[in-house]
Amino acid sequence: MIWDIFSIIIFPGLFGAIIIGLLYEGLGRKITARMQHRRGPPIHQPFFDWIKTMTKENITPKAGNSFLMTLCPIVSLAAAVSAILFVPILGLPAIVFEGNIFVFLYFLLISVVFVAVAGFATGSPFGIIGSSREIIQIISYELPFIISLITLGFLTGFQITPFTAVYFPFTIFGFMLGIMGKLGLPPFHIPEAEQEIVAGPMTEFTGPRLGIFQLSHAALLWVLVSSATVMLFGGGTIIEFFIKSVIILLVLMFIKNIFSRAKINQAFKFYWLVVMPLVLIDLVRVLTGFMVG
Amino acid sequence: MGVKTEVIHRLFSRPVTTKYPAVKADLQEGLRGKVIWHKKDCIWCKMCEINCPANAIKIDKEKRIWSIDSGKCIFCGRCEEVCPTTPKSVILTKKVETGTLDREKLKDVYQGDPLPKKQPVAEKK
Amino acid sequence: MSNFCLPFGPQHPGLVEPIHVKLEVEGEKVIGYDIKFGYSHRGIEKSLEKRQWIKGIFLAERVCGICSHCHTLAITQGIETLANIQPTGRSEYIRVVMAELERLHSHLLTLGVCFHEIGFGTIFQYMFRDREIPMELLELISGNRVNYGMNIPGGVRRDIENHKVKIIMQKLDKLEGRFDYYLKLLEKDIIVKKRTQNVGVLSKKDAIKLGATGPVRRASGISTDFRKTGPGAYGDLSFYAVTENGCDVHSRLLVRTKECEASISLIREALRNMPEGDINKKVPPIMNIEKGRETISRVEAQRGELIYYLRSNGMMPYRIKIKTPTYANYVPLGEMLKGSLISDVPITVASLDPCVTCADRMTVVKNGKEKIYTKEELKRL
After folding, report:
1. What residues in A contact B4, CB-CB < 8 Å?
2. ipTM summary value
3. What is the value of pTM for the model shown?
4. pLDDT digits 0-9 by tens, C298-328
5. Strand order in the sheet with C4-8
């Protein structure tokens, strides 16, 4: 019982997700800065940014819906944190039953869709364009992501357990591209295109509402990286688990720094014409039992 | 060497930025910084005041006050160029960190030597 | 889908300087536009009428921070023509070195900003690191990183000594290798090519009809460059104009990168062939020029052709009119924005290199006809 409460609130639940998520974000910024030949901020910088954001004023634009603008960040954070409870990390209790892979998927989807709803709720032109781009991006990456999860499900009995998927490279490819689309990492940092539409869905958010959105982004980063470590690379002891997570973070940052931004129609075409066939190959392999180890 | 290899190479090399202000900045020779005045060589010709494009130098010949407002100065160096004395009375130093919180502190007022007194006429005997 | 108005407005993280481009969008497509400027108007042309000639040079330099040397060059050449002064031989070569160094740092800034607009943060940081080399060289020669104050009627104010020449040559060798790297990136990277080819197209006919100038014109296949006529010391150096035929954003980036390489070889040639001699002639600090004389002075700035019109009134000018290249490029900008997507607007605006601070002039439009007001009419308004 006590371990259940620990698991929900401290680690890997609410506080663990927020603190480790913000640390991962700081580490990501430091690695990006070193790759760009400069020093970068200290690793604990996102904490200071969050504290500063929470002290600012809450402003609602005239055309915006105040209730929805307060509701969306909270739902987004809650959904992201709930999703990690289905993944068994380091032997801590998790909600495990057959078919929990789909509930995990569902919570992740809620977390991302409410960012788009928030953009529409503000009523500003930047928010509307950002939200429509976000929805198009969700339609693009979600199907390959689901198919790679189904492939993993067939191999593990539709239950999230530590599994090493090194013999199924296309599944790893589909999963990682799904992560890049969900988090908005380059080359798919399209909905929050700073140079074109100021900040996309988040343009009119200030103060505590924006602070909760920052926390939900950090929590999503933690959830996706640790579920990738467990489901694709079989997370082991504490040290192995964190080393594998940091390596996944390094790979994501490397891809972030060598590409520029794609246009939304180019991203759509890429996911449907390049990524889909590849993950389908792996699914067919598993279904027909061909070359399964 | 493309972008991909450069990015990996730079991850493991020293950053090119310096930790200013903990480390001193690397300034080139001949940098134009703050203006100062030496009272020893000045002949009070007022050429610097006439030629300043920003009207930053103000001279009061009777009270022998030479003042410059560093807030208006554009650090062009015309005052040093037109000063006729050797060595020059107005020179530009290399001091660049001159920020203050109070605008009045940017004005520098120098007090020069008083006018040389006329020699007293020899006393009539 | 309904239309709405998207302000690519004065304050925007994608813009370097304030300009208001109002876009009417339907989905992701742009169907209408309106360009308004004037946010950085400082009244410099009026202030120049109250200052003596040489003090005016320092004020004209501050019209723009990036193209400051071109403005002093233009106004100094104008004053030299009005007062019949011929600059010395050595100073003409030093002016060429300063102009080409300024071209280097300005083109690197433009290229970095263009890559930032398409979301490629890494190349932006690398270009700004490489830009430090021309900035250090400019500080070595003139004492300041911007607003150099080098030109004066009759010559230049500071000399390039021999030990400085050696340092300049060493650092230019380091910089030359970087441009091969950037050219390879522009020609080979797939996503960069997909974002910049066939975007912001300005055909050759439109470029001539609408009066585009500078690299924008040279990227549409027309080889126009004022430096070809050999002003100053350019006549003795082997100069060639860089032209491309693509008419789109990709060609403009290529033109600027290749012009940087040409600048490096021009600087080397100028430093090797510099004649000995004085750096300026003795000119009285308060110049008095005959009333009523007027002249036009032309300079090839980094963004195009810069023109100064001067008219004398004794110790001060009667009127100085400035025509900057960005002002002339605003009309082709409208042509380029027609029919593009929202994602293409920032890169189109950035590729024509707007130096908005240079271009804030005032024109009074009455009854649909444009008219430039003289000093008396403005006083009456």
Report:
1. 258
2. 0.87
3. 0.89
4. 999 999 999 999 999 988 899 999 998 988 8
5. C4-8, C20-26, C29-36
